[in-house]
Design brief:
alpha/beta; 29% helix
Length: 329
Amino acid sequence: MANSVFVYEYLSGGGVPAEQAGDPSTPHLLEQGRSMRDAIVADLVRIDEIEITCATSGDDRPVAAPQLRYVAPDPHQPAREFVRAMARAHDLVWVIAPETDSVLATLAAAVPPEQWIGCERSAIAVASSKTLTARHLAQSGIAATHIWQPGDTITAERWVVKPDDGAGTADTQLFTNFEPAARELRKRAEFGQVAVLEPWIEGAAISASLLCGPLGAEVLAINHQHIDVDERGQVAFRGVNIDVVDRANPLGRQVEDVALRVARALPGLRGFVGCDLVAAPQGPVVIEVNPRLTTAYVGLSARLARNLARDVLAMFRVETTQRSSQLPA
């Protein structure tokens, strides 16, 4: 019997509550979510032994294949309940969801661990908090962003405030000195948001895409991220160029070394994982760890001439036969 995989992307799968649907960032994030979902599905349909069910909230069905079907949640059905029900009908569940508001952790808890394609809950818990991530990596001797705490010496010129559990650059703001940044931190606390304040690290924004398993990790690619800051200090993610940093050069070797050390420091990382860094003058500094698929997955199978979905499944002991002639050039 073929392995059945349920693919669920939170935004395109109808997981956004009605009160959040009008958020100006939702269309952009939805586009990113769809692109990741479609990239996974496109890889999975090239594997003969896999039957795929993909969640959709409408007529959004860009990929067609005999072993692929689409399913939509019932109106007003909570994402957790929908994913739990689909898990009962499938062998494996592959979820793309943000760490924000514990969405990823909540969906992981809805799926039995043996069916979950992704990071273990312990790793999700650490990586979903920028404070916990920075502390954990620092304890492991890894250069990471420093979360400001009362009493710390103020030495940086520029500061950034962002949600502790934020994904990407959502609600991230840059300040040219400490005092307005501290006021913004207090303001967010008054509104019940757990935010962090940290020095802005100068340097190129890069990311490492990793394939993580119980026996170790592999750096698949080192990517360049496009980060913009507008006149109000709002930080925005504008896309990524995949596999553009050569690991034969000094920066590439440094980033690969740091990324592999991160994987060892967080042993619960599983499957495709992203690590965001800044190429600072003193060396790569880790900004955050994404315990999930990232937009750098899109196009990477073709770039590397390997089916990354098949490689991820292999990490979870799913044996398949690749139809290599179907892999995009």
